[in-house]
């Protein structure tokens, strides 16, 4: 009888843990049209290896709502969001750190980790509604000065970045100094739990 109670306790505990650790939603649930170029689901990335099993953009609900609102604003201007990365499981963060242990570009998973691990950050750009990319001055995950938000560029790049940042800031996001494509949701930068929930690639 003690064993039965113990097993039942484990099952109930597991159910509660799963319920508590599944706060993420798929951006597709909020409607809208998006483009995807998730490099980590391929080996075409700075790691030179695939670390995602499928392409999904999962976020905390508040962040997903803000992204949907930003995408609506972009669509009104003739553009749409193209995702590079959204939520990132802690297990993937550890793989990335093992390959590229540089805290300037990869959050240390054994310390504070990344806002990506909390479902409150995205890597993105904008493209025209027909999918035509805009010149942002560097490729995604370019670890050089050209990717810095204060790097001098030509007028076209400056205008494209300003458009990107103005709409994202309007909807509660801010870029970081070294990556023009990375946006943290300002209201959710602190106090969030690091998550290690695998992608459900059946959905």
Produce the secondary structure layout:
Elements: H1 2-20, E1 25-26, E2 35-36, E3 58-59, H2 61-76, E4 79-85, H3 90-99, E5 121-128, H4 155-170, E6 173-176, E7 179-185
InterPro entries: A_A_dipeptidase (IPR000755), Zn_M74/Hedgehog-like (IPR009045)
EC number: 3.4.13.22
Binding site for Zn(2+): 116, 123, 182
Describe this structure in words.
This protein has helices at residues 2-20, 61-76, 90-99, 155-170, and strands spanning 25-26, 35-36, 58-59, 79-85, 121-128, 173-176, 179-185. The termini are far apart. By secondary structure, the chain is α+β, with helices and mostly antiparallel strands. It is built from four helices and seven strands. Mean pLDDT is 88; it is low at 1-20. The longest helix is centred in the first third of the chain and has 19 residues, at 2-20. Its cofactor is Zn(2+). Belongs to the peptidase M15D family. Zn(2+) binds at residues 116, 123, 182. Its EC number is 3.4.13.22.
Number of helices: 4
Strand fraction band? 15-25%
Oligomer: single chain
Derived structural class: alpha+beta
Q: Distance between termini?
A: 39 Å
Rg over CA atoms: 18 Å
Question: What fraction, in percent, of the residue positions are helical?
Answer: 25-40%
- Count the E strands: 7
Low-confidence stretches: 1-20
| Main pleated-sheet profile | 5 strands, mixed
Global outline = globular
Rounded average pLDDT: 88
Q: What sequence of helices (H) and strands (E) makes up the elements?
A: HEEEHEHEHEE
Strand order of the largest sheet: 2-4-5-7-6
